[in-house]
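Hello,

Our lab assistant flagged a job as stuck in the queue for most of the afternoon. It eventually completed. Since we weren't sure the result was trustworthy after the delay, we are filing this so someone can double-check. Below is the sequence as submitted and the structure that was eventually returned. Let us know if re-running is recommended.
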Amino acid sequence: MDSRSADGFTDEGDRYTLKVAEGDVAPVEDTRFGGSAAFSGTLELPSDLVEILDRSEKATLAFWLWTGRSAADDDFADHQPLFQVGTWTDLAVSVRWNRLVLRHDNRVELDTQSAGRDVGVIWPNRWAHVALVLDGNAFRVFLNGHAVGQKDLESLKPGMRGAVTLGSEAFGGRIAHLRVFDQALDADTVQVVRALNLPEDLPGETEPAPNMPGLNLKQVSRDTGYTVRELLETFPAIEEWPNWEEISKIAPTFDRERFKPPPAPGVHPRVHFTEADLPDFRERFANTTLGKKMMDSIRGRSLQLRSDLTPWMEHLDGANIDRYREEYRQQEILVTRREGYHGPWLGGWVDDLAAGNLTAEIASDIEKPPHQRTLRYLVHLLPYEAFRCLIDEDDAGLKRAGAATATLARHFMSLPEYQELGEGNSWQDIYQKIHSQGIGLAYDFAYNQMSEADRADTRAFIALMTAGKEILPFQAVPALPANTTNWLGIHTNMLPMILAIQGERGYDAEAFERIIAAQMKWVYVAHGAEGAPFEGFTKSGYMPWWLIHAARQGHAFIGTEYSKNIYRRFCLHTMVPWGGRHIYETHIGRVDSGIPYMKFAHPEDLVVDMLYGSHVMDLINDEDYVYWPNVRTSYPPLYTELMVADDPLGMESDGTYDWEKAFDRTMAHLRAIDEPLDYYDDYRGVMTARTGWDRDAVMFYMEPRNVAGGHTRGSRNEFLVVGHGREWSTRHNIVESDSQWSSVILVDDKGQGHSVGKVPPGRTLDVVRAGDASFLTGDASWAYSHGMPNSADQGQPIPHSPNDSRFERSPLPWMDLAWSDLPHWLTGAKPGVGTRDSGHGHWREYNPVEHAFRTAGLVRGEYPYVLVIDDFKKDEEERTYSWQMQLADDLTVDKRPLADGTLDLVLVEDGDRRCLVRSLEAGGRAIDQAIVDASGWQPFEYLDRHQAEQQNNRLVINARSTVGDFKTLVYPHTPGMPEVLTRFNGDRSQLTVSIGDQEDIFRFAKDEDGRTRVSLERNGNRIF
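-- returned structure --
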C-alpha cells in the first residue's frame, strides 16, 4: 500500500506537519498539533499525490480538520468547499454549517448529520479527524474514526480526472497531517491512522468538558478554578453516571408521535408547530371547551395591540365588572375575570412601527428603568397577535405584526448596548434588555407575510441576541447547586429565539446544544430519582415548557420515567388526600405550571392526567373564568400552553369535566397497583405518609431538608398533619421566613439561622417504612447553630458534604465534596473564584445547640395518629423551649389539662371535625412537673422581608427547662371515633397508646448523643 505525505509536509518521526509557502494557504502554529495550514484560498495537491488518487479505483484521503465556521458567522456561506476533484460539478466535499456534505454533479448525495449529532457533527473550534474513502463507485466518509455516511456514485468513472484541491476561499479552516493512500481503508485501519497523530496534550486538557458543548477541560478549569483532574474524576459526565441507563430510560407512557421534527430550514412556522398543524389548531380552538376558552384569552389580549383604543378599554371594563359586551359576544370572546396588570393600549405604537416609523416616544422608552418600559409589554404581546392572525387567517394583521417586529429589531440593533454584545455574553443580561423571547416567535409566526428585507433584519437581530450566548447554568459542571437554580428554567426562554432561525443565516448550533445540555442537567441534577426538587418548586415548573422543544429536536428528556417522577412521584405523594393541593417548601398550593407539558408527553398516564385535570378544571367548568395570566416576561407565555393543551381524560361530550370523578378513578388505580403509602426522597430529605389512597385519609409530612436551597426558611425538621378532608397544620406562603412561621422548636424565641442569610441543610438519620408505621428521624443542629451569609468573607467554609446529610450515600463522587467546594450557584465556579458571594458554601455561628433531633411519623390502623418526639438541647442553662405547630387560619384551640400530667389542646373548626394535640412530655418531664406556659393558641403579627404585615395562626407549648425534649401525639378525628388513652410506665421509658381495640406500645431509649431511639409494638406484634 502506497502512503505518502504531500510535498511541503515534513516527516518528523510519526508526526507530519504541513508546511506551505506564504499566500492564500498559510502555515500556523497550533496548540494541538504544533503546525497546520490555515486556508483563505485553495491548495492544489502536488501531482505525485494526485497520481495515487488517479491510478486506482480505490483511494483514501485522511487528515485532521479544524473549522470555526457555523451558520452563526456573518459571512456564512451555504457550502464551504473543503475537498474538490475537477470542477464543482464533478465531486466535492463541503463543510455545511456543522457537518460534511458530499456533492456530485451539483447534487447533495450525502450529509453526515444523518448519522446523528454524537458522531456526524463537526463541532466548531475543535479538531476532528476526517477520512474520505473511494472504493470503486462507493464513497465513504469517516469522522473521528466513525463511519458517518456512504454513497454509491454510479456515474463516477475510474480515476480522479484532473486537479485535486483542498480548501476554498469560503472554507476558512485548518488542515493538518494529510495522508493519501492507494487503498480503500476499512474502519479499523482508519482508527489506526487517526491514532498515529493523536496529540500528546497534557492529560485531558483538550478533551470536551462534561455536558458543556464547545468547551474543553482546560477552558473550564480556567473559568471554574477546578483542576483538570478534579473535573475528570469528581464531575463525570451525566452519561457516565453509574445509573445512567436507568435514569435515561424512556417511559412506556411517552407518546413519541406527538413530537414531530421541525421542517427544513427556512420553512415557517417551525418553533411550536408547522403550517400543517394549523387546520387541527383551528378545529380545536373552535370546538373544544378548553381550546376555545384559551383562544378567547389570546384574542382578548390581542385587542391591546389593535389600532382602535375603544375595544381594549371596553375589554378591560368588561373584565373588571364581570359582564359580557355584545361586541365581544359576537366575536365569541369571553371578557370576565381579569388577572394582573397588562399595561397600556399599544395599538398606536404597533401602527407606527408597522409603517416603519420609530416615534420619539418609542425610541425613548428604552431609556427608562427596565420595570417601567412599555416596550416589555409590546415585545411580549407581539407573538400573541401574530398567533391570533395565523389562527384567524388574518393576513393583513400578520403582515402588520411582522413589519412592526422588524422595525423594533432594527431599533434595538442600532443601540450601542446591543452592538457591544459579544461571544460568551450571558443570556441573562440580554434577556433583561429585550424582556422576552417574543421577537423570535413573532418572526416565526409572521414570517410568510414579511418582506425579505424585514426577515433579514429581524433574523440578524435574533442572531445577535443568541449566537455564542450562554444561559445559566450551562457553564457549570453537572453537580448541585449550580445546576439547580430556578433561573435555569426562566432563562431557557432563549430556546425559541434560537429555534426561530434554525438552519438559517445566523443560527448558532452550539448555542442550541448548550441549552440542551443545561436541560439535561435540570432533569438529572435539579431533581432526585424520586422526583423531589433541590430548589423550591414553583419556578422549577418552567422547564417542562421548554422540554417540549427539546423533544421535537430528538432529545426526549421529558419522556423519561426520571423526568416524569417530578409529577408521578413527588407531586402525587405531596398531594393532600382530597387532591387539588400539594405541600411544597413555602406553601400548600396547586400543581405547578409545568404539568400541561408532562400531560402532553404522557397523555394516558392516569396520575399525570389527574394532576393536569386539577390545573384546568376551573377553566373548563367555570363559565366566567378566563385564563389570562399576568404579563410578566419572566414567566412562560400563555400561547405555549395553548399549543399543547389537551382535554383531560373523561371530558364529557357536552364539554363538561368532572374532576372529582377523575380523581376517584385515579385513587382506585393507585389502590389496585398497591401504590406505596409512604414516600421518601434522600435527594431533598422529605417524607410523606398516608393511611390510604382515599379522600378521608390522614397524611403526615416531614422535611429535614438535606440541602441548602436558594430561598430558604427556618424550617428544618418541620412537620405537617392533614386528614379527614382538611388541613390541621399548614405552611404559609412566604418565600423566606423565620422559624416562628414553621412547626419547629424555638429556644428563647430564637430559631434557625435564616436571619444570617440562608439556612444550612438538615440531616436524615433514619427512615422507617414498616407498613403499619412510617417514621423519620432528622437532625437540625446545623440549621440552628449556623447561618449561611451571602459573602464568603462573612463566614467559614462548610466542612460537610451533601452525602453527610443523606440516609443512604450517593455513589456520585461530587456528593462527597464539602459544600464549600461545590460549584457556586450562579457562576458554576469553585466558591471564592471570581466572586465574594458564597452561595451555599460558607456559614457562621448563629444559635449554637448541642443537638436538635426530631423523630416523627404516622401510625396507621383503624384509628391513625402521628407521634412527634423531640430531643433538643442548647446548653446546660435553663431556657424557654417553645414547641410550635402552625395552624390553618380558621382553627381555634380548646385547652384541656388532664390529671395524669398531660395536656390536651384540641383544634376546633366550625364543623364537627377535631384534631387532638396531646402534649405528653415537655422540657423532658411530665407536663405538671415542668414550668410550662401551654396557653396553646398564640396568633401573632409579623413584618415579612418586604416589611408587609403578615398574620400567623399557631399553637405553642412553652417549657422552661434545661432541655427541649417534647413528646406530642396528634390525632385527627371525626364524631364517633374513640378517645385516645395514653400512659407511661414508671421511668417514662414506655408509652402505651390505646384507641378502641388498638393498643400500641412505644419503647424509648436515649443514646449518648441525646437522640431517643424508638421501637413500636402493636397488640403484641413488633412493627419496628
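-- support follow-up --
The delay was a queue issue, not a problem with the job. The result is valid. The longest strand covers residues 58-66. Confidence is low (pLDDT under 50) at residues 1-27, 29-34, 70-76, 319-341.
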